[in-house]
């Protein structure tokens, strides 16, 4: 489907052409007409499918038809699980809406609240926010959500995963009853279906791929290896294959820092991002990676949400994730927008049960390839990784239900460290 057939505002079409887009992706072709018709939407779409434009373009279209008069109120609210994703979505809003007379803003925790307060008091039409910091502003009277016409929950599965369910419900209680609501998730889990029933009215359901499957265009490979030799194998693979831009996932913050330093010692320019680093440090590291000044970016799951890198060739799971769905999110960083991609997992004997869960979830057996010189020692006994995240998640749900509303953005920051030591 050509964007021209959608009859969008000429100013929006102009912005689309400037970024070089002509044909809508499958999620855009299905979602945009439904949203323009005023329907609520429940969409299963992984990263790299064009889902941000799928809700941004029709949202801008409908807002542009009604001019603001007098004071500006938030008319469209987009909730995201992380700061990085909020920044990415807001950039899309600015890109596609650059010729429209609409004001937008992004707010999230981990940064000074005062500049955000000034921006909100001046009035915005479109607000992209993380739940905790948004509630800080609501509780302090900095923002009025009574005029919201559009609500978008982006990566709703991740927000539930991070324990934001109580925040989301509190925010929704402050919104008008009559509004258009859009919910995007990588998968249609039972929790997502329950949440959608409480938010959406007779929604259009869209699936751009089967539940919990990974893209066929991503070549997936497992390299069995002893835990003690993982770093050596990673350096070997990067050097032998001459990978110039590699995103590597670790299970913990400490592991990310340790691996990044080790790779640098091996002559591979590397940096890391995780929840303990400031927002400024994380954005600096990501920019260095995108600009090609570092060859390897080592990240934890939470910190990597919202990373959008065109034509990223390789993703490596240095540690397998404790929750199988995270594997889908991780490898979705490559093979984006129709490009080919490769995902490699370095799996030790302790992680075999995690690999089994991933293969069951994705309904495929991932090819195992032994590398000469790195064959696992058969005498090593398995000590399976304990799944800490589900325990942390239960604590998160319980704690957030009992906490007062004040200081939520600081807790939002702590959620990063609480979640599986990410």
Automatic annotation (TrEMBL):
Q: Which stretches of sequence are listed as region Disordered? A: 373-422
User: Per its UniProt record, what InterPro entries does this chain match?
Assistant: DEAD/DEAH_box_helicase_dom (IPR011545), DEAD/DEAH_RhlB (IPR044742), DEAD_box_RNA_helicase (IPR050079), Helicase_ATP-bd (IPR014001), Helicase_C-like (IPR001650), P-loop_NTPase (IPR027417), RNA-helicase_DEAD-box_CS (IPR000629), RNA_helicase_DEAD_Q_motif (IPR014014)
- Can you tell me which residues the record assigns to a coiled coil? none
EC assignment: the record states: 3.6.4.13
Return one GO MF term: RNA helicase activity
The segment(s) forming the DEAD-box RNA helicase Q domain are: 1-29
Top EC group: hydrolase
Positions of the Helicase ATP-binding domain? 32-206
The record's keywords, sorted A to Z, are: ATP-binding, Cytoplasm, Helicase, Hydrolase, Nucleotide-binding
User: What family, per the record?
Assistant: Belongs to the DEAD box helicase family.
The annotated subunit structure for this chain is: Homodimer. Interacts with RNase J (rnj), might be a member of a minimal RNA degradosome complex.
What is the recorded name of this protein? DEAD-box ATP-dependent RNA helicase RhpA
Origin species, per record, is Hydrogenimonas thermophila
């Amino acid at each position: 489907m050509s964007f021209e057939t959608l009859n969008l505002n000429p100013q929006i079409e102009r912005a689309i052409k400037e970024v070089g887009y002509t044909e809508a992706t499958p999620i855009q072709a299905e979602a945009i007409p439904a949203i323009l018709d005023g329907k609520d939407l429940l969409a299963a779409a992984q990263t790299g499918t064009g889902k941000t434009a799928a809700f941004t373009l029709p949202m801008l279209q409908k807002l542009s038809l009604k001019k603001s008069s007098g004071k500006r109120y938030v008319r469209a609210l987009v909730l995201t699980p992380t700061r990085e994703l909020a920044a990415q979505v807001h950039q899309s809003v600015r890109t596609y809406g650059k010729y429209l007379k609409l004001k937008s803003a992004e707010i999230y925790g981990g940064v000074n609240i005062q500049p955000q307060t000034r921006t909100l008091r001046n009035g915005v039409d479109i607000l992209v926010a993380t739940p905790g910091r948004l509630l800080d502003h609501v509780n302090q009277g900095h923002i009025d959500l009574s005029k919201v016409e559009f609500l978008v929950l982006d990566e709703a599965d991740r927000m539930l995963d991070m324990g934001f369910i109580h925040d989301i419900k509190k925010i929704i209680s402050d919104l008008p009853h009559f509004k258009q609501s859009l919910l995007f998730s990588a998968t249609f889990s039972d929790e997502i279906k329950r949440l959608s029933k409480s938010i959406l009215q007779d929604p259009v359901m869209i699936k751009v791929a089967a539940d919990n499957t990974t893209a066929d265009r991503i070549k997936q490979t497992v390299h069995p290896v002893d835990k003690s030799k993982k770093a050596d194998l990673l350096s070997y693979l990067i050097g032998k294959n001459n990978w110039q831009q590699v995103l590597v996932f670790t299970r913990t913050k400490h592991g990310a820092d340790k691996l990044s330093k080790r790779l640098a010692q091996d002559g591979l320019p590397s940096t890391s991002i995780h929840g303990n680093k400031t927002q400024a440090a994380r954005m600096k590291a990501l920019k260095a990676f995108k600009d090609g000044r570092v060859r390897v970016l080592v990240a934890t799951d939470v910190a990597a949400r919202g990373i959008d890198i065109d034509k990223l060739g390789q993703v490596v799971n240095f540690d397998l994730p404790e929750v199988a769905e995270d594997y889908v999110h991780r490898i979705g960083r490559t093979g984006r927008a129709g490009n080919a991609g490769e995902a490699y997992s370095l799996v030790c004997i302790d992680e075999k049960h995690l690999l089994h869960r991933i293969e069951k979830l994705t309904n495929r057996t991932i090819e195992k390839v032994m590398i000469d010189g790195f064959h696992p020692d058969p005498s090593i006994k398995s000590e399976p990784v304990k799944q800490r995240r589900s325990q942390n998640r239960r604590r998160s749900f319980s704690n957030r239900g009992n906490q007062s509303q004040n200081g939520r953005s600081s807790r939002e920051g702590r959620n990063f460290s609480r979640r599986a030591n990410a």
